[in-house]
């Protein structure tokens, strides 16, 4: 089951996280403040962002990505999927029960 890594600007992070959980596309979303340095259109930028770690299921992954794309203000949002190795069985069960399938 995947964890989805998304970066978002401060003003959009709460809306994205809350929509994913409310719509049962993620069991939970962790928010971590971050400073990102990146190149965009030939210029180096430095911005305060939020890293969102969304815990979801294989079945809900595509819908989660589609919803992030709908809500995200960036032209090219960072959306990366990390597939887990070992995970506590009780957590995996809770996550599956929390995400609508």
Automatic annotation (TrEMBL):
Matching Pfam families: CutA1 (PF03091)
GO process annotations (BP): response to metal ion
MF GO annotations: copper ion binding
Keywords associated with the record: Cytoplasm
Recorded family membership: Belongs to the CutA family.
Protein name as catalogued: Divalent cation transporter
Organism: Natrinema saccharevitans
């Amino acid at each position: 089951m995947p964890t989805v890594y998304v970066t978002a600007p401060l003003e959009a992070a709460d809306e994205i996280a809350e929509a994913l959980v409310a719509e049962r596309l993620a069991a939970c979303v962790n928010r971590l403040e971050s400073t990102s340095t990146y190149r965009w259109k030939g210029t180096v930028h430095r911005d305060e962002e939020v890293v969102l770690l969304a815990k979801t299921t294989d079945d809900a992954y595509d819908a989660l990505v589609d919803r992030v794309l709908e809500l995200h203000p960036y032209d090219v949002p960072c959306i990366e999927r990390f597939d887990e190795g070992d995970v506590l069985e009780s957590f995996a069960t809770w996550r599956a029960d929390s995400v609508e399938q």
